[in-house]
Every structure is written in structure tokens, then in C-alpha cells.
Amino acid sequence: MAYHDANNQNFSSQNLNSPYAAGDPYYNQSSGYITPPNGEKPKGKGVSKWIKIGVPVAILVIVGVVVGAVVGTKKSNDSSSPAAQSAAAASVSSASVNSALEELATGKFAMATNSLYMVPLYPQVTDTAVFTTPTFASSVKASLTWPSDTFSAATPAATSVRSDRPRLIAPQYKWDVLTAHIAADPYLSYWNESIFGNATDWYNDDPVAYFFDDGNGILDIARRFKQRAKAFSYAYRMTNDTKWADRLWVEIQNVAGNYTTSFGPDYDRWDSNHFLDTAEFSAGYGIAYDWLYDVWTDDQKAAMRFTLIEYGLSFGLQAYNNASSFIGWWKTNTTGNWNCVCNGGLTLGSLAIIGDDDTGTASQLLALTVPNALENCAGGPTSDGTWSETQDYWYFGTTGYAEMTSALITATGSDYGMLNDAYKLTGYSHMYGQGLTQLFAVGDTGPNKFSSTANGIFFFASEFDEPALALYQRDQADAADPWSMFWYDASAQGAFWDGMPLDRNFENEIDQWVSMRSTWTDINGTYIGMKAGMNQGRQTHNDLDCGDFVLDAMGHRWAGELGDGNYNAPDYFSNDTQSSARWYYYRKMTEGQNTILVNKSNQNVLAKPTILGYDSTNDTQGSSTVYEVSSGSTAYWYADITSAYFSDTSSAQRGVRFINNRTQMLVQDEITTTSSFQWRMHTNASVSVSSDGTKATLTIDGDEMDVSILSPSSGAKFTTSDAVRFDSDPIPPEADQPNPGVTVLIIEMDAGTYNLQVLFSPQWNDGTSSVTPPSVDLANWSLTSHNT
């Protein structure tokens, strides 16, 4: 099966096998799914492991003429590497420059998608005329603003809806101008083609087949149905061709159990025991009912209302009103994605049928879902915008919240206070959490995303007047989605990176992480992510990983995350107490992270680290995609993570900084402990250790990274191991998944007091030389402390 990305390129499932846990946004899932009885994987499942497993050499999909006037530096000569391919994409004849600039002038900036990491590639050009300051409704594109909605409510109420259809997310006044907007805007045009491409693929495919996964129920099935409901409904409304409505009716009958094959148990077809499934089916039904309201016959609408209430909304009332029912656990003290998705799906389904529903179910639910979402899901992002679970669960939570809030606004005229400051910031958290290759994906990465995308950013961008967010998301691989056609404000103009700081510190005590980079627009640059934060309070989706870090350089991720364990494994989600069996699994225990491991033991779940220092030269990229940092440019961050360890460790501080104008990175640990400890880093590079053990050379696709132990860490030496547990570790309830292709780079030290400094030096091919910085204690770090 193929899907079409934001740049209207067709990718087969083979090309979507991401080597990292935070790979492509549609096929990122638990790696421990249950295989169906016939031995075949459920359709659409991809590989989610961070490690490379049978991944073809990265290729580029070129979507336009790419300028070669000024090619970015720091790239490999190896034609198989992402860096070399990026250079190849940018290398066209000078005769193409003018036509390429004309293409850029249309407003479409990303010229290619890297199919290994699914990130946009930008032409490396110094002409900045088209890369203007981010804005909405500029004089150039003012005609592409949405008309004003004529509907308003003097006293908004969730149960009082507009009289015209559609009422969910895309009112008729937007459909009336959409064709003209598509003709005038290259992004809308590409997305429209992509949506029709996906709809055509699904039209020719069988209806979504029922498949029950013990870990995720039928969530994949529900989200695939929702995808099709959106795409077929969109295709009909754009063409008035009834073939799309007829094909959608097949899907509607299928998930109701009224088609040619069975679909789950008669009493609970939408799997209320895993209520996410129920909610997503309800959302899909609501969209289909509302967007094609004028197409369905009265009998069809009656049948849809019956199914929606019978298998969806009635279970929602049970979740709220039956205190002894387990299915409603998500409605109490749950700020994560479950509350957002469940309330969102129930809200969309209820808004769709209210006025036609003579059972009173829809109105009862709307009186419950809105206040409950305000009490719970409204707190999904912390005060700095970071999603409280993990970077990947952000997709599910923000999608559910944006759908719910948008539908309330369009259907009833109010957001009821759901648009708070944290949701204004959450788009920036997502941007900074995306490295140059992929996400800083700590913790669990979740099930397949399918209908859960990052496109809620478009909605938040418009509601909060933050054009840079929309300009960022429109180049991403998951942007081609029916929601984008109505949430994106096509009057947006400019380059998201113009004026965007390279660095950002996220200070909320739950999160505590930093993002630092050398560029926003060149995959071959450098990126560092490091975290401290708490080891609890994340809906049992985190790892024991204070001090964890990732590194990007030269188009590769050199230090990465292993991602999910097996969601179906016994006790995987049992609890987050110190004795939880969750922490027996390698991918969740401290041993499986890129941090300090003391006494071969897990970190303390009660850890409350503190950020001790952060500073930056406050570089912003400017308008050009070609960006060379100024002399002395740097950033640093360090934290006290002593509380992550026990009484044998009286002090533990960890920091990271750029060296040599952001071309090298330093990770520094100052630790005092009465136990032995290990410095650990997971990499899918091949690793060669020098004879004296003080230097390791990492190699990926011909590109090299030198990793050196600096003085005063006398006696420290590198060793390596496979990514497997120690023989002395507690035995987990189920065997770990294998991690083939992953090497752990280790420094093992005896008890004592140490200042351990590890320098990462990418071997650039542009003549950039590495330096050896002076030794400076963390407390004395400054913006100039490591100048040579």
C-alpha cells in the first residue's frame, strides 16, 4: 500500500520503514505488535525500531527544481549517504537557477523529502527575496484569507449548533472558496492532489478489515476508517461524484458489522474496553454523517445514528455515568492523549447528530465532554508547551484536542476556553523537538499514527496568530490531510526560520530539556537534545532517563533512542513505581538510555532534577536557507540530576554544549559516587575503538564522527557492547525485543569523583578542523569559556 506525502510523492510501505523510533509520522508504532493468525502483519504496519533493519539506502524524492547556486557545506562525498544525496538534490546546472527561483517564488519552499527520515529538504540558496518574515494576510496574499463566518451565537452552548451543514471543522463558506484557494496556493494544490491520490488507493482497496491487537485493541482499524471517512467525504464534496459517497457507505456498513464479513462482537463492535478505538470510530462516523449530510438518504442517516449511538456514544455515557465501569478511567486526572482523543471523538460524533438524535444521547454527552476536557486535556501540554507524555504522544493528544476545539467553534461558535497559552506554545515544542533528522523521541513512541498528524499546528497557528507554525508544518510529510485544507491559512507568507532562534530551553519541572542546533534548513548541520525532568507523571510512557541525549550531524543521528518496548508484554504499563516490572525491560530501564548508569541500577522514579545553567548566543537564522553561524556562536545547558540516583551518589551533574562554532559537541559529567558507574550511548553506527581506548570512531554510510575522552578523566576508556541486558539484571516478565545493529558505547569507571568530558567531532568534508577545548567545570561554563 502506498501513501502520498505533503509534496504529493507516492511512498511504498517499503520506503516507510524508518530506522528510528520516531520515524515517519504515519507508520510509527509499538514494535511489539501481535502478528495475525495468518502470519502476515496488519496492513500499514511499519518498522518502528530506532535501529536499521533492512532499510534501503536513503533516497531523495525530488518535487521541484532545486537550486545549485549556493550549495550547503558539511556534506559527505559518499553518494549513498543522506548528506551526499542532499548535495545531489541541490546540484543542478546554473541554467536551472532562474527557473528554480521562479518555483520558489510561488511560495513552495521544500524541494525534496528525505525518504529515510521523512524530513523536508530545502534548496541551499542565498537569494532571500522569497524568504520573507512570517506573516498572515500580507498584501501579496490577502485574497487567500478565509471569508468571515456568518454564523455567530449570542450565547454559545455546546448543544446549540448552526443550522447549515457541514458544521464540523469545514463550514460551507470555506468550501465555497476552497477551489480558488487551491488554484492560487501551491501547498493546497499539492495536498489536494495527495488527498485524492490516497482516496483513489483506498477506493480500490478492500474495506478496512477487523483485526484485534491485544495491546492496542482495534485502534489501527479505527484510525484507518477515520482516514477513509475524511478522504472520501472530502473527495465527494470537491467533485459531487457519488462514487465517493457510495464507497464511503461500504466502509460505514463494514464497521457497523453489516457488510460481507464480520466485524467484532455484536455487543461491542468498537471495543469500548480500549476506549480510544470507540472514540476514533465515533469521530469518523460523525465526519461522514456531517460532511455528506445532504447525500445520505433518511434511512442511511437513521442507520448511521443507530450505529454511532449503539457502539459509540452510549458507551461514552456509560464511561461518564457508571462509576464502577473501567471504560471511563480516562476522564479523571488524565491530562494525556487518552482524555483528548476520547472526549474529542465523542464530541465530534455528538455534534454531528444533535438535532436529529431523538434519544438525547448527544446532548447529554456534550454537557460532559467539554467541561471534562477543560479539566484534563487542556493540561496536556505543560506550561512550556511540552506534551506531558512524550514527543510522539503529542501527535495523538493535539490532534484530538484540535479536532474537538475546531468542531466546537464551527458548530457552536465558541471554544469554551480550550485555547489556552500552553497550546499556543505546544507547536514550538514540537518544532524544537524535531532534530535535523527526526524527533528527540524519549519514552514510548506509540501505536501507528494514521489519522493522527501534526496538522493541529495549522489550527493553533491560525487561532493564536502564529504564522511561523503554519509555515513550518506545511513542508512536513504528514501535511497532506483534509483537516489541513481548512485549518491552513493560505495567506501565510514567509520562511518559518526567518528570525527563529536556534536554541530553546524548556524549563517546566516535568520536562526540563533543551534543543540546540546550527541550522533549521540543512539536514547536514548539527543538533543536540538533552533532558533532565521527572521520571513520573507521564502516563507511564516515559523511560528512566534523566540526562538522556541525542545528536545529529552530517545527515545522521549518531546517538538515538530505542523507543517502544512491547506494548503487549506483561506489566509493561503496570505502574511507574520503583518496583514496577516496566523498568525490567531493556528499552525502558536506565541501562537502555544515553545517560549515566550507577551500580548497574535503575534511576530513582522520584527524581526531581534542576536546571543549573543555560545560555545561548541567541543566534537566529535569518531569511536565507544557507546559514553559517557567526564566530563564537554557541549554546550550553547543564542540570543537577543527583536526585535521579540513590544514597551512593552524592552529586551528579550533566551538561552539553556546542564547541567550535557549533561544529563539535561536548557532553560533560561531574559525579561523586561510592559505586561504579557507566557512561552509555546507543548508536547504529559501526564503532572502532583506538588501541588506548580514549577515542572511538563512529561510521554511518561513509561519514565519520570521532568521539574522544578528554582530560582530566584519567584512566577512562571506551568499550562497546551489544544493546542487551546484563546477566545480573532482574528477569523481565517477557524477553526483551532484540536490538540488532545497535552498539552501546561505554565508559566504565570505579567509585570516586570524576569530571568526565566526551567530545564529539564530526569529520566535515569542507575543511573545518576540529579543536580540543579547555577543561572547564560546569559551574564555570559561559558563552566564552571554551574558546580556543
Automatic annotation (TrEMBL):
Source domain of life: Eukaryota
Any Pfam family: Hepar_II_III_C
Residues in Heparinase II/III-like C-terminal domain copies: 537-727
Principal location class: other
Location(s), subcellular: Cell envelope
Keyword list, A-Z: Membrane, Transmembrane, Transmembrane helix
InterPro entries in the cross-refs: Chondroitin_lyas (IPR008929), Hepar_II_III_C (IPR012480)
Molecular-function annotations in GO: lyase activity
Keyword set includes Transmembrane helix: yes
Residues that span the membrane, as ranges: 50-71
Name the record gives this protein: Heparinase II/III-like C-terminal domain-containing protein
Source organism of the structure: Lentinula aciculospora
